[in-house]
Amino acid sequence: MKQLDPKAVWLFTLKLLPLFAIFAWFAGSIITMGAVTFFVSMNTQGDPTWIFGFLGSSFFFWIVLTVGGAYCWARLSYHYYRYELTEQGFKKESGVIWKRYVTIPYDRIQNVDIYRGIIARILGLSDLQIQTAGYSAPNAAMSEGRLPGLSQSDAELIRDELINRTQRSRHQGL
Description:
Elements: E1 2-3, H1 8-42, H2 50-79, E2 82-85, E3 89-94, E4 100-105, E5 109-115, H3 118-123, E6 125-132, E7 147-151, H4 152-170
Antiparallel strand pairs: 1-2, 2-3, 3-4, 5-6, 6-7
């Protein structure tokens, strides 16, 4: 099975940053409150200057946890995201904790689109959307046959190959 373009790790990281920022903020807040309570109870001299250093290090911890966590999760997501064009149909595997295996028969494919958002264009990547008969998703990002993080040339080659295989499967008799 094939993997996405290696630059997809950066695309995944940038998309995960807001989620990990919120997670790190909650985790950092709990740790900061506990540490401030501990240091206030230990500091009997009344010198408040230590809190500035502590808050600075808490902010540094928040940044490291946000960026590091998002990058590590993006790296894992990239590693487990694979696809393949077989004789039966388009196959895709994804997921770090919960694995998802999708097979789309060629005769169910209705349309194949290529999207390039601003971040993907900066990285030189494309998002391939395979729309199928009988599957409705609330938005394109949730489509059954979505391949994010493909190089522009790979996305065009896969689109053309899917269209060819779809046309061949429709011209065959039962």
